[in-house]
What we know:
The chain is an alpha+beta fold. The chain is 30% helix and 20% strand.
Amino acid sequence: MKENFVIDNLETVLLTENSLTKFLKDYQIEFNKKEDGIDVFYNGGKCQFKGSENARLRNRLCKLNDSCVNGFLFNEKMDYMYIGLTGMPEIFSDLMNSLGRTDLKQEYLKRRKSYEVTIKVPIDDLIFDDDSQIQNCSEKTKLILKYVTNYLCYKMSKGKCYCFNNPIIRLPDDKNVDNEYIHAVRCIEDAKEIFKW
C-alpha cells in the first residue's frame, strides 16, 4: 500500500483523474481549472454557488487558499472531537448539499477508506496553526523542541497529571505529499484505534 501512496491538496484531487473524480464523473459532476480557482459543472452546466450557505464552498473553490494537506505533529491518539476526519471531507459534503445530491454522501460513506499516514517533510514546509507567523527554520526548530518536551512530559506522566494538545500542522496550499515523503500507512478499520473515547 505504501509503495504508491500519496496525499494531494484539494486542487490536485479535484483536477486529476482519481477514484473520487471518476466516481463523481459517473454522476455528471466535473471540475475545470480557472484563473483563480476551480469551476464545477453538473449535468453539463456550470454551477453558481450563491448564498451564505455556500460561503465555505466558494472560499475553497474560488481562491484555493484552503487547499492544504494538514494533520498533527505527533502520531498520538486524537481527541474524539476530530472523529469527523474519518467521515467525509467538508468540501464533498458542502458540494453534494449544494447540488442536491445528498444521496451521493451515503454512497461515499459506503466506499470510503480511512488511513493514518505518517509523513516526513522539510521543516521549511511546516506551518503550525497556532504559530503560523513563525517562518524561519531556526524558530520552527525551537518550537518543535518545545512541543517535543511537552509531549515527553505528557508521556512520562501517562497523561494523568499533564495536559497535552497535539499541535495541528499543515503544508502550504500548493504542496502535495509525494510518495518519497510517506513514512508509514495504516488502514483504520475502527475509529477507536486512533481516537480517545
